[in-house]
Amino acid sequence: MAERDLLVDAEANDHDELPVADSVGPGVGPTGSSVLAVLAICLAGANMRPAISSLAPVLGAVRQSTGMSSTMAGLLTTLPVLCFGLFAPLAPLLARRISPEKIITITLGTLAAGILLRAFFGIPGLFVGSLVAGACISVVMVLLPGIVKRDFPAQASRMTGLYTMSLCMGAAVAAGATVPIQTLAAGDWRVGLGFWLLPAVVAALMWRPLARRYARHAARAHYKVSGLGRSALAWQVTIYMGAQSALAYCVFGWLPTILIDRGMAPLQAGLVLSASILMQAVTGLGGPWLAMRGKDQSGAILILMVCVLAGLLGCIFAPLGSVWPWAILLGLGQGGSFSVALMLLVLRSSDAHVAASLSGMAQGVGYTLAAFGPLAVGLLHDATHDWKAVAIFCCVVTVIATVAGMLAGRSALVKATITRLS
């Protein structure tokens, strides 16, 4: 058993350019920089949010049809995000035995089944299907940063931007199109939710040839990464990922409800959410570029989090006639903050193995914390019957995200130990 220690002092490293350790894995995989690989990554990204953003615009209809309380609806919106955290550690374990491409192919097919279950099998199906969908999305999201680090090491920021843009576009389309699809289906919210299994099936078919190609060329060596739990920098990345994600899922789950409660029509509220998420695609692509302009990413993170807080407070308190620009500002901030969070998983890692493990830690712990965001919103609203307490909660979470993000944005690599298992 050969062991290789990567001990990089996160406090002492202040260089603009960080040394990247030689890869201990297969290097550039068989997917290389092919157009098929890029399209597959983008299509996978496009399927990472419709299962979540499609629910918010029809949540009122779901509650009316099923008799759910605000707290129960908050639990439903929280469940997929909680699964993001609980199932994230599973991805690196699976990747030690099966190629990431094959795992993603199977998982996207299972995601389609979860969406079907959620839409058409009553209240049990809503919760079980949300659990399955959240678990599948978690596994894919953890594996993709490692694939980017392995196959596109010189284009990591660009690929992260493309992936984030695709993710935001998928979320925006689902948020904006679910109600019209429901209307075309004679008001049946189940059809509006179930429609989004189709792009998941298409994505699974796109990944199949990549899985077969990698299986023919994959190296037999397997590796274990340890020590991330003792790295302060790894925890800073994790807390930033969790806190900014908590804000994002509060918006996904509750922004239309907030606007409807303030007097906006349901269709218009869904379109506001869709427009906000669509703006995320702009900074999802441009955020990594902005973050790479300075000596580190701390300044960009501060700017983006200020935009998030200002936009969110504007949506809660500004006159309804001025909600649109606030929603756009919110989207620009959230798209950039999320894309930079994903980019940090690559920039703070020495190679693909560390990137995959850091991704598992940051998304596992981070999304577990983030899952309580939408639930807290439901509980606070049930307790106070207004949105002021929710606004205070969002301010606190934003401060936590900003502090952790600025620390995580410093130029350094996480400390990790890589052990060759075979």
Number of helices: 17
Indicate the CATH architecture. Answer: Up-down Bundle
How much beta, percentage-wise?
A: under 5%
The CATH topology annotation reads as Growth Hormone, Chain: A
- State the distance separating the first and last CA atoms: 7 Å
CATH homolog superfamily: MFS general substrate transporter like domains
Give the overall average pLDDT: 80
Alpha-carbon Rg, integer: 20 Å
Number of discrete domains: 1
Q: What is the compact description of this entry?
A:
The chain has 422 residues and is mainly alpha-helical. The protein has helices spanning 35-46, 50-53, 59-66, 70-87, 90-95, 100-120, 122-151, 156-184, 189-194, 197-217, 232-261, 266-291, 298-317, 323-347, 352-370, 372-384, 388-408; strands at 3-6, 223-226, 416-420. A 3-stranded antiparallel β-sheet has the order 1-3-2, with helices on one face.
Describe the structure.
- There is one protein chain.
- By secondary structure, this protein is mainly α.
- It has a single domain, classed as MFS general substrate transporter like domains (Growth Hormone, Chain: A, Up-down Bundle).
- The protein is built from 17 helices and 3 strands.
- The longest helix has 30 residues, at 122-151.
- The relative contact order is 0.19.
Secondary-structure blueprint of this entry?
Elements: E1 3-6, H1 35-46, H2 50-53, H3 59-66, H4 70-87, H5 90-95, H6 100-120, H7 122-151, H8 156-184, H9 189-194, H10 197-217, E2 223-226, H11 232-261, H12 266-291, H13 298-317, H14 323-347, H15 352-370, H16 372-384, H17 388-408, E3 416-420
Antiparallel strand pairs: 1-3, 2-3
Helix pairs in contact: 1-8, 1-10, 4-7, 4-15, 4-16, 6-7, 6-10, 7-14, 7-15, 8-12, 8-14, 11-12, 11-13, 11-14, 11-15, 11-16, 11-17, 12-14, 13-14, 13-17, 14-15, 16-17
